[in-house]
Amino acid sequence: MKIHQQGIRLPAKCRGFHLITQEVRQVLLQYTDIQSGMCQVFIRHTSASLTINENADPTVRKDFEMYFNKTVPENDPQYLHDDEGPDDMPAHLKAALLGSSVLIPIVQGRLGLGTWQGIYLCEHRNHGGPRELIITVWGE
């Protein structure tokens, strides 16, 4: 079994749900020695998250943003953690709900995503800044 690990830095993105499948695929292209295995993508932040969902219709990503904003609203007077602005604590809660990593099988040297699946970077801050990912690939 072989294991590879690489960090990448994504440029700052506006608040919302953004497809990053191509960025992850670019990393996987470097590791042609792995035809069957797993790819873990981990985000090194507490106010952004990762998930896998619809990759074709951008309205799905807009609906995700709308749903999470309704579910975890800003300016709740009961939040104690508000030093970094009204979007900070909701961003932490949204990230906890979605998670900090995704695990994808590698099939014949490629990500084993379904036809309509893509990897989302979920930016929960108004001005989150660049985001760092660690991509770990292992297999045979």
Structure report:
The chain is of the alpha+beta class and 140 residues long. The chain has a single domain (2-139), classed as Jelly Rolls, CATH 2.60.120.460. The protein is built from three helices and eight strands; from the N terminus they run E-E-H-E-E-H-H-E-E-E-E. The strands form two sheets. It has a five-stranded antiparallel β-sheet with strand order 1-8-3-5-6, covered by helices on one side. A three-stranded antiparallel β-sheet has the order 2-7-4, with helices on both faces. A hairpin with a 2-residue loop joins strand 5 and strand 6 (110-111). The longest helix is centred in the middle third of the chain and has 14 residues, at 58-71.
Strand order of the biggest β-sheet: 1-8-3-5-6
The largest pleated sheet is described as: 5 strands, antiparallel
Order of helices and strands: EEHEEHHEEEE
User: Taking Cα atoms only, what radius of gyration do you get, to the nearest Å?
Assistant: 16 Å
End-to-end separation in angstroms reads 5 Å
Could you name the ranges where pLDDT drops below 50 across 5 or more consecutive residues? none
The assigned CATH architecture is: Sandwich
> What helical percentage do the residues reach?
10-25%
Structural class: alpha+beta
Fourth-level CATH superfamily: YjbQ-like
DSSP, total strands: 8
How many helices does DSSP assign? 3
* Backbone shape: elongated
CATH class group: Mainly Beta
CATH-defined topology:
Jelly Rolls
Domain module count: 1
* Average pLDDT number: 97
Q: Name the assembly state.
A: single chain
Percentage of residues in DSSP E strands:
35-45%
Family: Belongs to the UPF0047 family.
Pfam families: YjbQ (PF01894)
Protein name: Secondary thiamine-phosphate synthase enzyme
